[in-house]
């Protein structure tokens, strides 16, 4: 199913102020893969993701979505294939109500109103915000806005999901729901995130970026076990892989540190 493949070849991009954000990035993602993009602030994650649905176009190198190179001619097709959740929900939400924002994409596809309504209600229920349907998006909390942005992408039934820091600002219940939702999405997904524990639960493969370059690309567990790589890329090991300093051998916390044992 080549229409679900993403291929990036020697991608370079500098912003108008000459900041070189991507300095030659290459990778290929096959259908069904779940890939994390991690790296410190400023590593180039968002700039890379913005190339995957044509929001930015390559200055050098190529991006291919499925059978086509991503160009101005193929951009609409690419946007139907790739559902993108932006890092800042304010870049994505612009209608008067949550309902209208989530309905915007499917209406633009020309779907019949009943089908649109059905998709919107399902997407809102999936991210647990049916009660916000009539509210203006710009008055919502950051976490609520992010859930609206996710719903607006789900209504498009994309073949590939690209999400930029989707769990940022979510409360624990919303984060857990997002995790379950993403685990259920069986097509390809690419997730830029600082939530390395979510990566452990969700992504079998991790790409590490630093200063506009890919430092490593491989199985998530191997990447997170590489202390030198994590330090060089300014990353912390996920909590689930950190050993408790009081434990020896590291198999669960020392009984005296367990909350239930405290006096
Ligand atoms: N609009 C912009 N204009 C100029 N420089 C930018 C702009 N957006 C991002 N950058 C710079 O590009 C680099 C990569 O940024 P970004 O892709 O946002 O990184 P990340 O998402 O990993 O934090 C950083 O040096 C950042 O300061
Ligand atoms: Mg970013």
Notes on the structure:
The protein is α/β, with parallel strands linked by helices and 263 residues long. The chain has one domain: 3-Layer(aba) Sandwich (Rossmann fold), CATH 3.40.50.300. It has helices at 45-50, 75-81, 98-108, 113-126, 142-154, 172-184, 196-202, 220-225, 227-232; strands at residues 6-14, 20-29, 34-38, 60-65, 68-69, 82-85, 160-164, 188-192, 205-210, 213-219. A six-stranded mixed beta sheet has the order 6-7-8-3-9-10. Strands 2-1-4-5 form a four-stranded antiparallel beta sheet, with no helix packed on it. It is globular and about 55 Å long. Residues 250-263 have low confidence and may be disordered. Residues 45-46, 87, 164 line the site of magnesium ion. The site of adenosine-5'-diphosphate has 12 residues, from helix 1.
């Amino acid at each position: 199913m080549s229409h679900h493949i993403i291929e990036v070849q020697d991608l370079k991009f500098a912003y108008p102020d000459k900041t070189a954000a991507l300095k030659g990035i290459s990778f290929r993602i096959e259908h069904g893969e779940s890939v994390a993009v991690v790296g410190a602030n400023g590593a180039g994650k968002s700039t890379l993701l913005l190339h995957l649905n044509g929001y930015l176009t390559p200055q050098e190198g190529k991006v291919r979505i499925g059978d086509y190179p991503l160009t101005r001619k193929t951009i609409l097709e690419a946007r139907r294939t790739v559902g993108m959740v932006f890092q800042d929900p304010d870049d994505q939400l612009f209608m008067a109500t949550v309902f209208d924002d989530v309905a915007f994409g499917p209406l633009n596809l020309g779907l019949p109103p009943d089908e649109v309504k059905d998709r919107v209600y399902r997407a809102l229920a999936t991210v647990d915000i049916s009660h916000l349907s009539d509210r203006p998006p710009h008055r919502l909390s950051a976490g609520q806005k992010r859930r609206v942005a996710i719903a607006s992408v789900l209504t498009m039934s994309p073949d590939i999901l690209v999400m930029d820091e989707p769990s940022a600002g979510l409360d624990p219940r919303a984060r857990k729901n997002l995790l379950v939702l993403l685990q259920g999405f069986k097509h390809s997904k690419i997730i830029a995130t600082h939530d390395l524990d979510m990566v452990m639960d969700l992504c079998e493969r991790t790409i590490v970026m630093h200063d506009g370059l890919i430092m490593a690309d491989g199985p998530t567990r191997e990447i997170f076990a590489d202390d030198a790589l994590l330090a060089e890329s300014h990353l912390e090991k996920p909590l689930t892989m950190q050993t408790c300093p009081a434990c020896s051998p590291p198999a669960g916390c020392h009984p005296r540190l367990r909350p239930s044992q405290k006096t």
